[in-house]
Amino acid sequence: MYRNCLSHHMARYKPQDRNSLLLPVVLSEQIVPGSFAFALNYLVDHELDLKPLDAQFQNDEVGASAYDPRVMLKIVLLAYSQGLISSRAIEQACQRNVQFIAISGDSQPSHTHIAKFVAKLSAQIKPLFSQVLMTCDAQGLIGRDMFAIDGVKLPSNASKERSGTHAELRHRAERLDKAADKILALHQAQDKQGTTQTLQPKRQAQLEALRQEAARTREFLASSPPRKNRKGDELKTNVTDSQSAKMATNKGVIQGYAAQAAVDSAHQVIVAADVIGSGSEQAMLLPMIEQSGPYRDGNTLITADAGYHSDANVRHLKDHNIPALIADNQMRSRDERFENQEKYKENPDPLFEKKEIGQPKEVKRFQPKDFTFNADNTATCPAGQSMTSPGTIHTTARGLHYQNYTARAVDCNHCELSKQCLRGPIKPNDGRGRQVPRFVPKPKDPTHPSERMRQAIDSPTGRRLYSQRIGTVEPVFANIRHNKRLTRFNHRGREKVNTQWNLYCMVHNIEKLSKTALGYQNVQ
After folding, report:
1. Are 143 and 264 in contact (CB under 8 A)?
2. 154 beta partners
3. What is the band of 83 on the pLDDT scale with cuts at 50, 70, 90?
4. Lowest mean pLDDT: which of 21-25, 244-248, 507-511?
5. Looking at CB atoms within 10 Å, which of 117, 148, 171, 262 has the fewest?
6. Which long-range contacts (CB under 8 A, 24 or more apart) does 458-467 make?
7. Which residues of 15-26 are buried (b: 16+ CB within 10 A; e: fewer)?
8. CA gap 198, 193 in Å, rounded
C-alpha cells in the first residue's frame, strides 16, 4: 500500500513565467558604492571640469538637443572598463544592460554618436587625463619614488599589406591593375568563343575592388610625399593609416602603434601616456619624462629598458640632473644572474625556419665570437687550427679599430667544418684561408654619461632598484590588454589612437580610485 501511494504522488511547484515582465527598477540603486561605476559617476559629476566640452554646443536657443558630454564620457569609460571597445557593442549595452542604462539615465545614444564623441575628444583628452591624475594625487595614490616608462605594441585599424615605400606601393598598384586586366582578358576570350554571358557578379565585384584599390594607392602616392628618417632613408608608409608603422613583436609583424606609459611604483597609477607610430621608442623617453613633470620631484627615479637608451638621452638626463636608470643592450650580458637564461627560453617553432621542398637549408657560418683570440697575435678556429695576424690595426669609417686573423688555405681545404666556415671553395694559388676580424674594444671613459649609467645600473643598489621596473609597469599593460581587452586600436591616425589610449589609461587610474577608502566607496 505504501509503495502504491508513493507511485501516485505528484509534487506541485510554483509556476514559472519566462515571458517579458515590466519590473520596477530604481536606476540610482544600480550604481553600487565601492564599484568602478560608482567612482566613475561621482568623479565625472563632482571632480572633473567639463565646461570645454559644453562649449562645443551652441544650441541653447535653436537647434536639436544634444547628448550630455558627461553622460557620453561615463558611457565610454564604463564600456572600456568592461572590455567593450566597439561603438556598436556600447550602443547595445546602453539598450540592454541595467548598469549602462542607469549611468546614462536611459539616454541610449547610437553607435554613430558614440564614435563621433570619442573622435572629437582629441583636443580635451590631455586636460581630462590630468584632472583624473590630480584627483589620484589628492587621494595619495602617487608616491613619486619611481616612474617606470615602457611601451606595448598594438595593431591599429590598418592593413600591413598596404604598407611599403613609394616604389613598393607603386609596384603594388601595377600588380593590382595586372590582376584586373587578367580577369577582363579572360572574359573577353570567352566572348570571342561565342559565349554571350556577362561577367559573373563575383568576378565583377573582384574586378572593381582591384581597380579601386589601385586607384586609391596611386591617389595616396600623389598626395603624400615620401617619409624619411634622420639618415635620409625612406621609411615605409601605410595607405590606410600613414601614421602607423610596421612593428616586430613576439607574435609576428603588426601594423600599428607603440602605446607608451609612465607608471608610478607606489600604486601603479599612470602618470603619462602617449602613442608613437613611425620612429623609435628612444624618441619617446624625454617627452614622457616631460609629461610626467608635474608629478615628479627632484628625487623621483626614472627607469626604462634598453629600447629607450641612447647617448643623447643619457646625456640630457645628466645635464638636467634627472635621476634615472636606463638599461643598455649589454646590461644582461654583464649580469651574472642571467648567465644561464638560455636554458629557460622556449624551443623555437619547428616550422618557423622550414624551407620549401627543393630549397637547400641555410648553413649558419661561424662568427668571430666562435673563435678564440690569444695574446700573441694568434687565434684558434672552432676546428682547433691556428690562425695568425701581422698585428696591424685597421680603422673602419665609423672609427672602430680591428685586427685581422688569417688561417692557412691548406688547413681550411681539409677541414671537416669548412661548410660552416667558408662561403665557397678557396681559389687556387691563394695561400689564405678564412679571415676573421677582432675588434678592439673602445677605451672606456669613466666620465662619459653612458659609462656612468652603466656603472650605476650594474651596482648592487642599481640592480635592486631597476628590478622593480617590471613589477611596476607590466601589470598595468596586462590589466589594459587582457582584463580590459584592448588587443587593438579601432581608430586611424595618431591623434585618435592617442585619444583612445588615454581613455584606457584613465579607466585604469579611475579603477585605482574606486579601490581606495578615501571618499569613493561610500560617498552619497
Report:
1. yes
2. 257
3. very high
4. 21-25
5. 171
6. 458/331, 458/334, 458/335, 462/325, 463/335, 465/146, 465/301, 465/303, 465/325, 466/303, 466/325, 466/327
7. eeeeeeeeeeee
8. 13
What are the grid coordinates assigned to 379, written together? 687565434
Residue with cell 564620457: 73
Helix (H, G, I), strand (E, B) or coil at 372: strand
Q: What letter would DSSP give residue 443?
A: P
**Cα–Cα dist 368/386, whole Å:** 14
Q: 497: closest CA among 508, 509, 488?
A: 488
Q: How many CB atoms lie within 10 A of CB 56?
A: 11
CA distance linking residue 170 with residue 176, whole number of Å: 10
Residues in CB range of 514: below 8 A, 6 or more apart? 34, 35, 36, 38, 39, 40, 520, 521
CA 164, CA 245: separation in Å to the nearest integer? 10
What are the Cα distances from residue 335, in Å, to 341, 343, 447, 449, 464?
11, 16, 22, 20, 12
3-state helix, strand, coil in the chain (%, to 5): 45, 15, 40
Q: Is 139 exposed, middle or buried (0-12, 13-18, 19+ CB in 10 A)?
A: middle
CB 263 within 8 A of CB 136: no
Closest C-alpha to 485, from 35, 79, 72: 79
pLDDT higher than 50, residue 3: yes
pLDDT level of residue 173 (50, 70, 90 thresholds): confident
CA 261, 263, 269, 272 torsion: positive or negative?
A: negative
Name the grid cell of 179. Answer: 590582376
Distance CA 146, CA 133 (A): 16
